[in-house]
Design a protein that fits this description.
Elements: E1 5-9, H1 13-25, E2 30-34, H2 38-47, E3 52-54, E4 66-69, H3 76-86, E5 92-95, H4 101-109, E6 117-121, E7 142-147, H5 153-165, E8 169-172, H6 175-203, H7 209-213, H8 216-222, H9 229-238, H10 240-262, H11 266-281, E9 295-301, H12 307-317, E10 324-328, E11 336-342, H13 345-357
Parallel strand pairs: 1-2, 1-4, 2-3, 4-5, 7-8
Antiparallel strand pairs: 6-7, 9-11, 10-11
Helix pairs in contact: 6-10
Length: about 375
């Protein structure tokens, strides 16, 4: 297997995670990196993830077999002008953006369509920056590829193989399909979550009672409202047509639901919840995707001194790191519940096993 040279324009969370995954898959791969963040470049070089770094988009990238555009989308125009001057005709140019139409249009205007295959690793984190990147971020995540009409099939096949080596799952779509699908399963949910949170915010009492008792279901379906407002503003601006169209369908569906509630239509209400339940239960239970799964669980504990410390000590003995912890005392019984959130799925599963062995009630 011949070794590759891969360049990265931008080395943040996603770029860094791809670079790490490539290094794990192919230890002798050569990685060249550019980023305006000098500390990120220095760390990548120190860790051996980057083999060389550069302070500009220059001839250092002329030897690349793959060149990943991982800088903010707003930088693409300027970066493409610089890349066009140094890009080898055999290099595959790709990106990692969550909206593909704009980048494909910019690539076409730059005359680089024959070399471009859009890329979107559908994985992420609430953290950001190279320091938080990790190879396992891509594990079992769908990695969508959007080839141009001029893309050489052999180059597309090679890129699919490279994605598989990273531990991700390649899926080839047109960029139009990609933007419509992600609008439905990623972009629209963020709009809905933020809108719902704001509805509660403006409907709450001065004492904040709604916020005080918001738990379980509400927190689950609105968790993604904590994402970067700047990022989602830009996504809505760049994929607005698809999001707005699907949002209107959702508004129509909400109107039908309201009518069923107002009319006390038992059949319509049952169908609403039953069809949703059946379809939702058919989803693949994966921790990767456009909306990342939260690694958390809730355990019932006695409302007495030491109950919380006992669990924390047990997890510490087994080297399990806790991301977040909380106690709920809103039940009529004397017991309470302890909510634990973890950085990794393995830690959650190990905790569940340990607590069940100790006869704790896990939810």
């Amino acid at each position: 297997m011949s070794e590759l040279t891969c360049g990265f324009i931008g080395l943040g969370l996603i770029g860094g995670s791809i670079a790490r995954a490539l290094k794990e898959a192919r230890p002798h791969i050569r990685i060249i990196a550019y980023d305006i963040n000098e500390e990120a470049l220095a760390l990548a070089l120190k860790e051996g993830v980057a083999d060389s770094i550069t302070s500009a988009i220059d001839n250092s990238f002329s030897s690349c077999d793959y060149l990943f555009l991982c800088a903010p989308v707003s930088c693409n125009d300027d970066n493409l002008l610089a890349i066009k001057e140094v890009l080898s005709p055999d290099c595959i140019l790709t990106d990692v953006g969550s909206v593909k139409t704009n980048i494909h249009q910019h690539i076409k205007e730059a005359g680089l369509s024959a070399q471009f295959i859009g890329g979107h690793p559908m994985a992420g984190s609430e953290r950001f920056g190279y320091a938080n990147s990790k190879a396992m971020l891509l594990q079992n995540a769908y990695y969508i590829l959007t080839p141009s009409p001029e893309t050489n099939p052999h180059k597309l096949a090679s890129y699919e193989n490279l994605v598989s080596e990273m531990g991700a799952i390649p899926l080839v779509l047109s960029y139009e399909e990609h933007d419509f699908i992600t609008a439905a399963v990623s972009h629209l949910p963020h709009v809905i979550a933020s809108t719902l949170v704001n509805l509660v915010r403006i409907s709450d009492s001065p004492e904040g009672t709604m916020k005080q008792i918001a738990a379980g279901g509400f927190k689950d379906i609105t968790r993604i409202a904590s994402s970067s407002p700047t990022m989602w503003q830009q996504i809505c601006l760049s994929n607005g047509e698809n999001i707005a169209g699907l949002l209107q369908r959702y508004i129509d569906a909400l109107t039908r639901a309201r009518t069923a509630i107002e009319n006390k239509d038992e059949a319509a209400l049952y169908e609403l919840f039953d069809t949703a339940r059946i379809y939702r239960d058919s989803f693949i239970n994966s921790s990767s995707g456009p909306i990342k799964r939260a690694y958390d669980l809730t355990v019932d504990i006695a409302d007495k001194p030491g109950s919380m410390a006992t669990i924390v000590s047990l997890l510490a003995e087994h080297g399990i790191s806790i991301k977040n912890i909380g106690i709920t005392h809103n039940r009529e019984a004397a017991e309470g519940s302890m909510h634990l959130e973890f950085y990794e799925e393995d830690a959650m599963q190990m905790t569940k096993k340990l607590l069940q062995e100790k006869h704790y009630d896990i939810k």
